[in-house]
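Team,

Forwarding the record for the chain on the shared tracking sheet. I've put the sequence and predicted structure together so nobody has to dig through attachments.
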Amino acid sequence: MTYGNSTFVIVGYVNIFTSPDGTTWTSRTNETTNYLNRVTYGNSTFVISGYSGTILTSSDGTSWDNKTSGTSVNLYGVTYGNSTFVGVGSGGTILTSSDGTSWDNRTSGTTNNLSGVTYGNGLFVTVGNEGTILTSSDGTSWDNRTSGTTKYLSGVTYGNGLFVTVGNEGTILTSPDGTTWTSRTSGTSLSLSGVTSIE
């Protein structure tokens, strides 16, 4: 889910729903039959990432356009920051775009699947399989960070001066800078799939 242009947008399976208030929801038509994973908002544009390299964009959340991503791998995460959209996915795939329309494939330095990506404090952070954590200031050049875990990391966010990532078996890691990560006690052994922050 994301919020922008006075509109909430949620995605799942092949569905897109929008709402002005979180109470009344409207189903929106799109031209893909691929699974839709994540949605973000930036530069007056909604961007959705999905399976088989799917990228959809919209200025209002109502009408959606299918864009060419340049890849056929599954895209699991997408975010916006530093005037750049960043999408991540299978096999260490990282794509960047300034407008959501034209996308460039970047070298991640890993073949592990990347499942989540966020932007905060001037830094992109993406996480994935086998405890993978990568960081970048511009979305183009990426550095591999030591997470201290081999667990699958599924989601990551930034808020209150802290990056937080979550994953399998109740894994929670935090970092003030994206470089040094500390394991936290979650109190559960269940897998955690998402995390967010509102500042």
